[in-house]
Design a protein that fits this description.
The chain is about 50% helix and about 15% strand. The protein is an alpha/beta fold and about 210 residues long. It has a single domain (about 1-205), classed as 3-Layer(aba) Sandwich (Restriction Endonuclease). Helix 2 (about 20-30) crosses helix 3 (about 35-50) and helix 7 runs antiparallel to helix 8. The chain is globular and about 55 Å long.
Length: about 210
């Protein structure tokens, strides 16, 4: 992950900030808006790349939204619901879709075939129906506002480690950068621990109209 960050920083250049600033602004603009789900997904994918994950997305039917692969042992795969509404009751259909993402990844992304694949739902919704609970037990929960706050902090940390970046291969810089990524829960193991709560645990079960 640190090596991928080095490549990103080197490609963007460290003499001036223009290219880096533009990428950071594009990511924040995409993930802080509520109207365009496709733009949100693209900003989410780009955020993963900037943070040193091997990130991708797919437009195929039933495909997950962005995925972030740390290495051959751990992968995060997301169901993005950035355009959702806080008072919406989360649907059974979307719950089943989110729970099926690890299977899709194993069949379609060879890089993740041997990894632990952690499905994560990003949503403003706090309620769901009884029928969605079995699927949501298999999915981690990331409240949309919390994801956005984490993303902003992650970009702040990355800018901080970029400031001291001497070029690829510095052991001292790598050790310092890794420590800062762990402290901010950007590093894979720490991020996994942070997102321990399942969506079934986080959401209230209600009766009412499901999301269309």
């Amino acid at each position: 992950m640190i090596e991928r960050i080095e490549t990103v920083l080197e490609n963007m250049g460290t003499i001036h900030d223009r290219k880096y600033d533009a990428e950071e602004k594009a990511i924040l603009t995409a993930i802080l808006q509520d109207l365009d789900g496709i733009a949100f997904e693209e900003g989410h994918r780009k955020l993963g790349l900037l943070l040193g994950y091997s990130a991708g997305n797919s437009t195929e039917d039933a495909a997950p939204d962005p995925w972030w692969i740390a290495d051959d042992s751990l992968c995060f795969v997301f169901e993005d619901h950035g355009e959702g509404k806080p008072d919406t009751v989360f649907s059974v259909r979307k719950a089943r879709q989110a729970a099926s993402h690890p299977e899709w990844m194993r069949e379609n992304v060879p890089e993740s075939s041997a990894a632990e694949i952690v499905p994560i739902l990003i949503t403003p919704c706090s309620s769901t129906t009884k029928g969605a609970v079995p699927s949501l037990k298999r999915v981690r929960y990331w409240q949309l506002k919390e994801f956005r706050a984490w993303a902003q902090q992650a970009l702040h940390v990355l800018r901080d480690i970029r400031r001291d970046f001497p070029g690829p291969g510095s052991l001292t810089w790598r050790i310092s950068a890794a420590a800062k990524l762990k402290e901010a829960k950007i590093a894979p193991a720490e991020m996994r621990k942070m997102l321990a709560q399942s969506a079934a645990e986080a959401m209230e079960v209600v009766t009412g109209q499901e999301e269309e």
